[in-house]
Amino acid sequence: MQVPFVDLRLDAAEVWEDILAAVTAAVEGGRYILGPEVQAFERDFAAFCEVPYAVGVASGTDALLLACMAAGLGAGDKVIVPANTFIATFDGVSRSGAIPVPVDPDPDLYTLDAASVEAALDSSTRAVMPVHLYGQFADIEDLASLCADRGLVLIEDAAQAHGARFNGRRAGSFGAAGCFSFYPSKNLGALGDGGALVTTDEATADAVRMLRDYGQARKNEHSRIGLNSRLDEVQAAALRVKLGILDAGNEKRARAAGLYREGLASLGDVVTPAVREGSDHIYHLFIIRCTDRDRLRDHLAEKEISTGLHYPIPAHMQPAYSFLGYGRGDFPVTERLCGEILSLPMFPSITPVQIEYVCDAIKSFYGRGKA
Ligand SMILES: *Cc1c(COP(=O)(O)O)cnc(C)c1O
Question: For position 327, what pLDDT does the model report?
Fold first, then answer.
């Protein structure tokens, strides 16, 4: 048996004809950039996130950058980010001119909590950018109160949390802005790159609409230095169809996660994900912590099981961020996670048989169960 890490075509199989029809209509519509499909998707995605505004952009990284720009962040401003995240969280902040300030996450939940963020604030801190990593929330309600008390801008990196709820509210709806990626393998994925920023604030939505379009306030009137970062019609058409199966896909992921938990429960060498009180987990990734990780990964590869590492080298140890001046040992929780985490195959259409095969392969590695 083979178990891929994700299977994007199989996940979309039930709506394949609808996607092709929607894409064909968008192609025949002849608009291509910022046309009616983008407007319709922005309405649909805002409604899905239960906020008044959504603005389609070119990628999740750009959504983060545009959120920083719309908040007026720039040189000298510090933005708290989790030390363990995808590099794009750091990039969005840095591109705006602001300085990403990493904070170690909770060691069991892998996301930021308000107490550690509070301890890292100083007089230059202007914003906090929690990441709802792997598909579950950071300590969002406490972070929102902390930001409100201290006059800080809260920007959610929700690129791994499309549709997750915390005490009933959707990811992206807590901050001044919620930033999403539609990279193909995300829980809501396009047929290429794409992203969106959602907000409850009309001024933020207007600012991002202007900034994504060369800073153009009115035709040929450029009030700020902007960028070209727009969602296109073909992607919007496909995303509208796929939005219709997002919640169902997230439920399938949760069922798959339950089967992994059962299958791995008896193994002392493996820690399955803890879930934060109040938070859904939509399992963008199913991450275990395990002993002897690299050899386990090789063993699974021999059995044709694809796995991933999210992420093996933290941002503060990447050459691109050496200018921040951190080194090994500065973020011990993140550095330890980097050596222990393993991402198992996770996608809505993964089957119970495939999950059992993966669990058996892990048990056989640790010397228990079927070989
Ligand atoms: C995917 C991702 C991004 C970046 O999104 P792109 O669309 O690839 O630019 C940012 N943050 C996190 C946490 C991500 O997983």
Answer: 96
Helices first, then strands: H and E counts in the chain: 13, 14
Global pTM value: 0.98
Helix or strand holding residue 272 (H, E): none
Report the atom number in ligand 1 closest to the C-alpha of 186.
Answer: 1
pLDDT, tens digit, for every residue of 146-191? 999 999 999 999 999 999 999 999 999 999 999 999 999 999 999 9
Residues 282 and 273 sit within 8 Å (Cβ to Cβ):
no
- List residues near ligand 1 (CB under 6 A): 59-61, 85-86, 88-89, 131, 157, 159-160, 181, 183, 193, 195
Bridge-based pairing state of the strands 53-57 and 195-199: antiparallel
How many Å is the Cα radius of gyration of the chain?
21
Please give the Cα distance from 46 to 167 (Å, whole number): 19
Q: How far apart are CA 138 and CA 123, in angstroms?
A: 23
